[in-house]
Amino acid sequence: MNQMTYPQTADTHLEDLTDRIKPKTLSNLLLWLIVAFVVIFIVWASVVKLDRTVHAPGRIVPSGRLQVLSNLEGGIVSQIMVHAGDLVRRGQPLVRLDPTQASAELGSSQATLGALSAKIARLEAEIAGREPVYPPATSPDMAEQIGIERSLHAARLSDLTSLSAAAAARMAQASRAVAEAEAAYQSRVSARDGARRQYELIRPLVERGIEPRLTLIQQENAAAVATTDAAQAAAAIARAQSGVAEARASLAQVRGAWRAQAGTDLAAAQGELGARRQTMPALVAHLGRSTVAAPVNGRVNRVLVSTVGASVGAGQPIVEVVP
Q1: Lower CB density within 10 Å: C or N end of the chain?
Q2: Is the pTM of this model over 0.70?
């Protein structure tokens, strides 16, 4: 009985082994199918875009109606005065940027305009030869600038007086030289005429033998010397008169150069004043833009800055308003 049992037992083990192997093979196959499915799903999910639908209450705002407000130059947020959903009226301030830089630039330009106006008043007076008439001192800075121009005007007048005095002294000296030369000339002419008359008186006497010929020769020499002296005196008069002319020209040149310098400075100041005036509207507008205001009546859709002290770039959206 034992011999018959052994073959049955071996067959039974083989059948059991076969039964065990088959399920394991199927499990492995199923596992690999699952892994392949997961891999394929991951690849597909990374490539394919899925549309999602989110339901929320709201209203449609046409892009043509939405007002997006920004600042041309940008700056630092100093005050946020509205929130999303607030009703606003046209011109109502919404957000303020720090106006320090814009205000400083405008103030500096205004001070420069005042200084140039005072300078132009002084230069026009110097050219016209009168006392300056300055614009009203509307601020302490303007009053200080007018004081500076007064001091500068006094200093320039002092320089002109000194230069003119030197030229006038030279002209006076040349005039005295003319007077002295004219007096010397008159003396030399008188001496020449006297020598000639003496010569005419002695000559008949010499011819009649009353006076020796030597006396006539001596008188003739004296008349020639007197004539030479008179000619030299006339030349001295001409030189002295030339000196007067030069001194007078020097005085005119000093005054002309003084006025010419004032004219040059006046042209430069007027040019700078015109250029400064052209920039004033832009500076005023820059300061005004530091306050972002509502352009229309409407409702604040979004406030895109939330922190006081935050930096806003040039042209960066700040507030959205729906009319």
Answers
A1: N
A2: no
- What letter represents residue 278's amino acid? Q
Higher pLDDT, 165 or 53: 165
Tell me which of 234 and 93 has the higher pLDDT. 93
Kindly report the three-state secondary structure assignment for every residue of the chain.
Answer: CHHHHHHHHHHHHHHHHHHHHHHHHHHHHHHHHHHHHHHHHHHHHHHCCCCCCCCCCCCCCCCCCCEEEECCCCEEEEEECCCCCCEECCCCEEEEECCHHHHHHHHHHHHHHHHHHHHHHHHHHHHHCCCCCCCCCCCHHHHHHHHHHHHHHHHHHHHHHHHHHHHHHHHHHHHHHHHHHHHHHHHHHHHHHHHHHHHHHHHHHHHCCCCCHHHHHHHHHHHHHHHHHHHHHHHHHHHHHHHHHHHHHHHHHHHHHHHHHHHHHHHHHHHHHHHHHHHHHHHHHHHHCCEEECCCCEEEEEECCCCCCCEECCCCEEEEEEC
Residue 163 scores a pLDDT above 90: no
Give the bridge partners for 76, in sequence order.
Answer: 311
Q: Amino acid letter at 140? A: P
Amino acid letter, residue 243: G
Is a pLDDT exceeding 90 seen at residue 63?
A: no
